[in-house]
Amino acid sequence: MSTLEPPKTGSAVEATPYVTIVLPCYNEQDHVLDEVERITKAMDSSGYTYELVAVDDCSTDATLARLEEAAPRFPHMRIRAFHRNGGSGTVRRIGTQEARGEIVVWTDADMTYPNERIPELVQILEKDQTVDQVVGARTTEEGSHKILRVPAKWVIRKIAEKLAGQKIPDLNSGLRAFRKSVARPYLRLLPPGFSCVTTITLSFLSNQHDVYYLPIEYAKRAGKSKFSFVSDAYRYILQVLRMVMYFNPLKVLMPPALWLVGIGFVKFVTDMVRTPFYIPTNTIMIVLSGMLIGSVALLADLIVRSRGE
């Protein structure tokens, strides 16, 4: 866990920023500069040395041109342009890998998150060395497909809480700050899409890194949403299962294995009462299925525990 003291603006080590803010930008031409100005104003007032890495994810509008045109006004902004669309997860992974700051902040450029509160997230990490990640936990839902998203996200979050073994107020908030040194081993696990935020949350929780949830307001996005309800919700569920399988496969596989063996045993007893000395094929298949899944669970757990990370 880092014990670095945050350098303040004007110090001798200003060339090495304490905070790196990774800002994915994809077709945000109408408001990207408003977001950049909001972030830089908050960080300039905070006293923390920082860099703002604005990553253009191969936008098809004038987002990159407007960032480049405004660059002289924002000396702390560094522009990174992708030549093909990699997805928000790819942007955040590469931005974090290239970050020079000890504290990395993820946020969005669509005016939904209260980015003026970024210094608050950093301050929590600075003052409490036991906390490794601070998540802006949204108290409202203003995204597209709200009628479908709210119950779907609730179900996914409850599954994640059950598998992670702890309460998660917001599983996939896009506003968060964390220690780069702690996150580094998990960056290779980040998927290219929106579920990258779910991945980094579960990676920290599954490895006993303390996560602090800071309640925030969530505004209606500016511009058109890139979120696809069916495909992205499906990816979220898969990613939750994948991450728990990666760190603790017994939690996913052992319950169904034990249920199948238990059901098979009850059915076996019932079959013996009804037709003594005759075991139906389906009873054998249920028991064998449970034993096979249980064996896979134990083997997967052995692999996880022998993996050097």
Fold topology:
Layout (H helix, E strand, L loop, with lengths): L18 E7 L6 H15 L3 E7 L6 H8 L6 E5 L6 H10 L5 E4 L11 H10 L3 E8 L7 H19 L11 E4 H4 L12 H11 L3 E7 L12 H19 L1 H26 L6 H26 L3
Parallel strand pairs: 1-2, 1-4, 2-3, 5-7
Antiparallel strand pairs: 4-6, 5-6
Short description:
By secondary structure, the chain is of the alpha/beta class.
Describe the 3D structure.
It is built from ten helices and seven strands. Helix 2 (63-70) links the parallel strand 2 (50-56) and strand 3. The protein has a seven-stranded mixed beta sheet with strand order 3-2-1-4-6-5-7, sandwiched between helices. With 309 residues, the chain is an alpha/beta fold. Mean pLDDT is 87; it is low at 7-13. The chain has helices spanning 32-46, 63-70, 88-97, 118-127, 146-164, 180-183, 196-206, 229-247, 249-274, 281-306, and strands spanning 19-25, 50-56, 77-81, 103-106, 131-138, 176-179, 210-216.
Poorly predicted runs are: 7-13
The total of beta strands comes to 7
Question: Average pLDDT value?
Answer: 87
| Structural class assignment | alpha/beta
Cα gyration radius (Å): 23 Å
Strand content: 5-15%
Q: H/E series, N to C?
A: EHEHEHEHEHEHHEHHH
Q: Major sheet, described briefly?
A: 7 strands, mixed
Helix share of residues?
Answer: 40-55%
Which geometry do the CA atoms define?
elongated
What is the first-to-last residue Cα distance? 16 Å
Largest beta sheet: strand ordering: 3-2-1-4-6-5-7
- Please work out how many helical segments DSSP would assign: 10
